[in-house]
Amino acid sequence: MKWNIAYRNLVLFLVLAPNIFVVIMGIESTPYTCAPMFGHYIDENTDLYLFKFEGVLDGEKTNLVDYYGKPEGFFIRHFFSKVYGSTKAISPFTNKLSESPEAFNKRMQAFFISYGNYLQKEYNKSFDKIDLFIKKVDQNRNVLMDYELLGFFDYHEQHYKSLYHKNK
Amino acid sequence: MSILFSKLYELVRYCLKYPLSLLRITLSVLFGKYVYGSLYYDAFLEYDTNYIYGKTWFLELLPSSLFDLSPEQFATLKLVLVISIICSIIGLFGRLNLLILAFFGYLAFGLVEVAGAFDHHLSLPTQVMLALALVPGSMKISLDALILRFFRKNNINSSNQVPKWGFNLILALVVITYFTAGVSKIRYGGLKWVDGTTLGFYLKERTEKEKKGESQLIIGDHKIKDEDKWKDRFGFIAHTYGNFQNVKKWNERADYIANNRYLVIALAIGSVMFELLAFIAFFNSKYRNIYLVSAILFHMSIGQLMGISFRQYRLICFFLIDWNLIIDTIINKLKTKKLIPENFGKLAS
Q: Looking at CA atoms only, how far is residue B72 from chain A in angstroms?
């Protein structure tokens, strides 16, 4: 009987504890989630943006939307949630419990290096740099602010440079 | 005919004594099919190259050699998956195979998350598969139970008693899942979430019809203080989700709701209340049934209006309903109206 109770408590703990943890912390990592799918507020005044990746080689520019190698939603969500990250240190869309400029730069470097390798391998394309642009739109994708350069990854220096950081 | 009906009635009542076994059989089919379709070789190839920062906690625990498989080894892995699905359904070495199937769920959907999208369709079902492997009652209708019964002929009666904690644990997983969805809406969206504009946005969104490069939106917050921004000046906080319904008829209905201010507010309030009040499923069987039927209807409407089916969630809710209460209520009503004999249930049993 004692063993039965101990087993029951162990199973309850194993199954419930990770859920309680992600609910309290407000994070997610498969299959545990704080269910943030519609956990944000959107009205007509909400700022909405679109990312664009543009490869540059000898001054020639290539929009990389055809070279994501997967659905756009997957590529951008992965980039935003797992690599770039929310402005807030803990984002409900990922499993990070902290954020720092060092960790951000490390992730951006790893992402762009591996993405560069992928472009080379799959499409035989290499670039001097990849520019990361942002465009502000309304809910119907009407342009409110044209593309603005957010930063770029320099493949010669192997480093991501944020223009915002530079201007400060 | 009446004997056949009695036998059928008896069989149904017997099966309903073991809802977790029925859930195991049916969920293994739906879940197994989805896992099989989600586990593809390219996900393994991409794993450690493009997505090193997307690893889930579970994938971090696995040896890297698991992601360095040859096509032949991968085919063997899928064969193991198929065997575990079949054995989970029929209940042969059932608990072991449920564990293996749950492992494949953690693996396959972990890789899907690594690729870019957390598959919320399968967050609850994956955990339920794991729970089914560990709790009492999930193997009562199975080949394992038949074999055990054959070897333990003298111990039949004692083995028919199923402790309730297994059922309650799976119900708790359902309750937590809905509750946290409600909490997240208020936590990240604020109380103003119930003004219906967020719901209206998603009802009108046509994610798959947008031009290339314009489908995935990122939300910024200009109210974030400058000193809190260091990556950019926009204060990105989240990506949006999508509306994947492409059928014109349903798009028109979604637009109608979104454009009706009072209706969309009512639905927004209803959604949040429905999620935050999930714990009423523990009050008693009647409340549980009302809640779970509402959950099935909730997912059916989301499925039609937004193209997000949550089929596995609906199945889980269906088998957690207290069907005995419903059948007893119907039989008692029919007896009161003298449409069936007074001794109906007793005759059958």
A: 23
Radius of gyration of chain A from its Cα atoms, rounded to whole angstroms: 20
- Mean pLDDT over all residues of chain B? 90
Flag whether pLDDT at B270 surpasses 80: yes
Preferred mutation among B207, B234, B269, B271 to probe A, highest tally of A CBs within 10 A: B234
pLDDT in tens, B194-216: 999 999 999 999 988 889 999 99
Chain A touched by B333 (CB under 8 Å): no
Backbone φ and ψ for B84, nearest 5 degrees, come out as: -65, -35
- What is the SS3 assignment for A54? strand
Distance (Å, rounded) from C-alpha B40 to C-alpha B42? Answer: 6
- ipTM for the complex? 0.92
Q: Does the CB of B253 have a partner CB in chain A at under 8 Å?
A: no
| Residue A166 pLDDT | 44
Domain boundaries, chain A: 1-36, 46-162
Residues 165-184 of chain B with CB under 8 A from chain A are 165, 169, 172-173, 176-177, 179-181, 183-184
pLDDT of residue B285: 95
- Tell me: cis bond preceding A36? Omega within 30 of 0 counts: no
